[in-house]
Amino acid sequence: MQIDWLTVAAQIVNFLVLVWLLQRFLYRPITNAMRRREERIEERLAEAKAAREEAEEEAASLKRKKAELEESKEGILSSAREEADELREKLKGEIRKEMEEKRDAWRAHLAEEREAFVSALQRKAGQQILDITGHILAEYADMEISERLVATFADRLASLNPDKRAKLTEAASEAETAVVETGAALTSSAKRRITRALHDVLSSDIDVDYREDEEMVLGVRLTIGGVTAEWSAARYLDRLRAELDEAIDLGSHGGGPEQEHVATAERGSG
Amino acid sequence: MEISPDAWVLYQWRGLELTATIVFTWAVMAVLVIGCRAVTSRLSDSEKVSRWQVMLEVIVTQIRDQIDDMGSGDPDRYLPFIGTLFLFIATSNLLMIVPGYQPPTGSLSTTAALAICVLIAVPLFSVGRRGLGGYLRTYVRPTPLMLPFNVISEVSRTVALAIRLYGNVMSGTVIVGILISVAPFFFPILLQLLGLLTGLIQAYIFAVLAMVYIASASRDRSSGQEGDRQNSKDQGD
């Protein structure tokens, strides 16, 4: 056990050299690398934190936006619903209006058709009644009825109101002949009776011309100059026609048409 | 049988002897520097790190933490000195498993050189930290009467450092040598394994004690008591 001081000195130098070398090749690079890594990790952590905060902010804003969207969605839905309601009401109104128009047109058309039908019916019914009446009268117009007709004419002539009589008298004084028209030919006695009655009423000897007119079913028409007086069963027929029209109108508005027809027929026959 | 590598002269030139101590010291230095250079030349800053770099980082971090535990502050200031002491002694002792190698720490000259380095480093670090006056005041604490004892303590602990390391390493070598002559199979291997453990522990003790001395001299308050405590610890070893 001895100490070689030269070796000691050499070892001191060696140790110091080793300290310098290790400082250069070990401690400094390693500590620097670790420090850099730590800084890097810190930086990354900070970045991650910032990114997370950003993401959280983003998430919060998205959440907010979503809520706003929900709200606006409600608004849009309700306005859309209102619009739809309005549109529906409008369409309903239009359809109702259109239906009204169509109904009116249909009613008008119906009324026209009814009118046409009624007039046709009227015409036909009138014609039929006239025909029937004509036939009946033609068949049963014997002397007795002609006599009754002439008698009635004479009575009516006698009970003529003063105005009419004055007009007839005035016409008779100017005209030369009076024309008497009947549905059927009159017997000579009947003609005489009428002529006499005329002469009585008008107090003149006017000539009487007897003519036949098929349209005069059961009546007598007296024409002197421009003045005409008529007594005819045709007015009964006119009244019948008017009542028939009334019955048809009532029938088209509801009620029992058959009874009305019966009533009309009864009235017509009376 | 050569007990000390100092006695193993490899080359002689004009009275200057190149002993095995010097040569093996250079070898240890070469291993350390080349190994560190090989790893640190490809250092990575990223998260992907090579295993060798991880090993070096673990070693450096552990040494720094140990220094920090001594409570002297700023471990980077002491890291090169303390770290190199530990790495040099540990490498010297661990290379014992290489056949034909003799640890330079088995030479009293080497351990004395290292102890002298500590002896010089303690006042240097202390003066650098507290100033010359501050350092000198540690010798007259708690009373000026303690000055001679403090000086003796300073010298004796240095000697103790050198002798402790030398004795442990040398004894390991000697025991292996004796055992080889008595029981040449198996037992020397066990003793060598024990020697590796002892060598590592000695490296740790040497470095920690050096740091304790430096720290106790650098502390402002109660440095005297701290120093006494360390002295008693030394005597215990």
Descriptors:
heterodimer; A: 270 residues; alpha+beta; hypothetical protein PF0899 fold; four-stranded mixed sheet; 9% strand; disordered C terminus; B: 237 residues; mainly alpha; two-stranded antiparallel ribbon; 7 helices; globular; cell membrane (chain B); proton-transporting ATP synthase activity, rotational mechanism (chain B); hydrogen ion transport (chain B); ATP_synth_F0_asu (chain B)
If you had to describe this structure to a student in words, what would you say it looks like?
The complex is a heterodimer of chains A (270) and B (237). Chain A has 270 residues and is α+β, with helices and mostly antiparallel strands. Chain A has six helices and four strands. Chain A has helices spanning 5-140, 143-158, 162-174, 188-202, 234-252, 257-269, and strands at 177-182, 207-212, 219-224, 227-232. Chain B has one domain (5-236). In chain B, strand 1 (9-13) and strand 2 (16-19) form a beta hairpin. The longest helix of chain B has 36 residues, at 147-182. Chain B is globular and about 60 Å long. Residues 221-228 of chain B have low confidence and may be disordered. The interface between A and B is large, with 33 and 42 residues. Chain A: This is ATP synthase subunit b.
